[in-house]
Write a structure and sequence with these properties.
Oligomer: single chain
Number of strands: 4
Helix content: 40-55%
Strand content: 5-15%
Length: 140
């Protein structure tokens, strides 16, 4: 059985991000992905800046999860996006089962991958970090 979706499901990914925002009662424009991870017991750690290659990793050991994000790109915005991308893999239906068969999933975030799972996680991250409702309502 092939568990890879044929096309990225942007609507599903954005809906998953919106559900997280609702559950966390986040209504403004500032979203802290590390705080979201902490509420789920997910440890977030930086990857040494001397190591390049991936923007982040979602790791599962038993029932515990962790996120490692790249620091070789010094942009805090990109790092926050990478953490949010990994949260996408955690929250989007089907991602943990499909991607964590070995316990580790390496990502290349930032809309650079043609892989549907990576695209969905990118859409999740964008929707999480730039929630639509504050922009529509005009509230800060």
């Amino acid at each position: 059985m092939n568990t890879k979706p044929r096309l990225a499901r942007r609507t599903l990914a954005e809906a998953a991000a919106n559900a997280v925002l609702r559950q966390m009662k986040i209504e403004g424009l500032w979203v802290d992905p590390e705080a979201i991870a902490a509420t789920k017991g997910i440890m977030v750690q930086p990857k040494p800046d001397t190591a390049s290659g991936v923007s982040g990793m979602l790791i599962k050991a038993g029932d515990d999860f962790g996120i490692i994000y790249a620091t070789n790109i010094p942009s805090r915005g990109f790092q926050r996006f990478s953490i949010s991308h990994e949260l996408g893999h955690y929250f989007i239906e089907g991602h943990p089962e499909a991607l964590l068969t070995t316990g580790v999933h390496q990502s290349r975030a930032g809309f650079v991958s043609g892989d549907p799972f990576e695209q969905e996680a990118d859409h999740f991250a964008a929707a999480l970090l730039m929630p639509e409702s504050p922009f529509k309502s005009g509230s800060p």
